[in-house]
Amino acid sequence: MNGNELDERKTTILKAIIRNYLETGEPVGSRTISKYTDLNLSSATIRNEMSDLEEMGYILQPHTSAGRIPSDKGYRFYVDQLMAERDHEVSQMKEFVIEQTEKVDRVLQQVAKLLAVNTNYATMVTAPQGNHGKVKFIQLSNVDEHHILSVVVLDGNLVKNKMITVEEPIDNEDMLKLNMLLNTSLTGLSIPEINLGTIAILKEKAGIHSQVVSDVLDGVAEAISEGEDLQIYTSGVTNFLKYPELSDSERASELLHTFEEKQELVNLITDKLGDENSTGIQVYIGDESPIQTMKDCSVVTATYELGEGVKGTIGIIGPKRMDYENVMDNLKSLKSQLDDILKKAKET
Amino acid sequence: MNGNELDERKTTILKAIIRNYLETGEPVGSRTISKYTDLNLSSATIRNEMSDLEEMGYILQPHTSAGRIPSDKGYRFYVDQLMAERDHEVSQMKEFVIEQTEKVDRVLQQVAKLLAVNTNYATMVTAPQGNHGKVKFIQLSNVDEHHILSVVVLDGNLVKNKMITVEEPIDNEDMLKLNMLLNTSLTGLSIPEINLGTIAILKEKAGIHSQVVSDVLDGVAEAISEGEDLQIYTSGVTNFLKYPELSDSERASELLHTFEEKQELVNLITDKLGDENSTGIQVYIGDESPIQTMKDCSVVTATYELGEGVKGTIGIIGPKRMDYENVMDNLKSLKSQLDDILKKAKET
DNA sequence: ATTAGCACTCTAATTCATCGAGTGCTAACA
DNA sequence: TGTTAGCACTCGATGAATTAGAGTGCTAAT
Half-sphere exposure (CA, 13 Å, Cβ side) for A55? Predict the structure, then answer.
């Protein structure tokens, strides 16, 4: 139960088994390891060690006379080792060609795709979330007799608009006043600070055309608070079909469904075991995942940040025998780049 | 080669074969038909007829001693018959609960999902497309020193906005003038009417702060014309896995990929054989489909309209043995309902 | 402590026989 | 002349039996 129950040789062998299994997806036998490693041990010796490893729960046999495959505990050990090692060279992601002028959602969709293509696993990316800054600017305009357009600009130049339908028009003068009022009272406030109370007070202040003004303010309130729901972009879901252990109809169908619905994927980012390790990278192996349908998968997530607590998540979902090393490198690399791109985009 | 090469009995038998195959997915034999129909014919007689039908190309044998399955020509005959029949009772789609307040894209996504659930096939819905009406209202606002927000409202109250970054600020007075100019010169024009020439003229007219104004106008032009790319919403792609004839790894992977990319799906709506039949419903069987990966599928598309040439497309993609009748009913029903919903939403 | 060697186990692949649904054809029948 | 009964034949699907081979555990020798 303590951290050092594995001596060096067992560690080497375990790693060799896992690495080999990652490549082939087939149970690996003693003979293979005997050749694969530079330990110069015979298959018999390996067999003994493997027997031990099995007893300790790091590997298991699918059936009596097959080779061994890593157990969840084995994978966990492996991943923890990887995490502990000094950072790998972060191989620059090749040709990250995204014109910055495109909208954020395009960028994120692109990122998801790029990552999927690069890793051959399914990917998900969530839009940056959090206190989207403060209100910077508000404007109401008469569009026609029955429609008023409200535009709200938030810090980070995020624009929201909402068309408000009104019974009777508001004349230009009153509109000017309303605009003044809105800007002076709301500018600088963050969204959570603007609650129903604030709106109520506003309504009172502007109380002239009770009904119309009330409608308009409700509209503004809605404009401000809406769209806060989490957008999730996915890509590469067909990659599941590339791995035999996931591609049987039953499993594949469930997985694909989860990705299509997206709803459940939220759990991958809200869950967040408290354990914030140095890199901000989380790995869920098999049953560790908060999503039931992924019990035969591994999930690697990373959080990217835009400062001020505005965060998003990137996730890669693949078979348990995923190439953790490559995946984590990709994520690390992406994390920083995404940071850059979005910060720039934000200013545009 | 003429329309009447099939006598009544052959027609009945062919229909019976197809209908049976739609249900079971298994080749159907003479004995089955003999019982299935009320023709009171022995299996031997049926066999003779089937032999004829095969020779004529309406059905075929997967291998020598199996039953028959419909050929593409057979399916074609069947759906043409269906189309010709007086409209079926359009079974009202149950509980079409969509709050109208939601954004159009939400509605469409919902529609896609609903349809997928109802039919058990994969579905796609495109956003209404076409001359999105004329420009109704334009407004530029100073957000901060280096950012100007341009808001354009189109007929149908479609709002577009774009943040324009400028080197030096424009003072309020000039801004007012610019707004006036923009509104007087562009309001009432439709998007295609606003070309580069128009913008050039505008630039000249407003020529005061050459550079800044130029930047701003470019921004406006971009805001107006952008976002014209076709959005496609899909749902129910996992349904492919329900049909054995489509669910082998190879095919399924291709299909799912096509749906994930969405790009190619555009062909389903641009293609449009000229033949506008009464219902506006198109059926592509097998190779008739403009998309290669769907050569083992059937595709049924319908066009919905919001008047003024604003159109969108709904598509259902499933195995060739899809339940054409049900699918077409669903589409017809949806077509009208979608019409209503969107028209209302448009006014909101 | 390591290893060679051997008996043993279990899966995957292969072969083979069998079954049965379905056909085509012929001859009898109304 | 159209319909049907009957029969021989075809061919995939099913399942049992066999085999091949990878891998193990154990024992005895080094």
Answer: 9
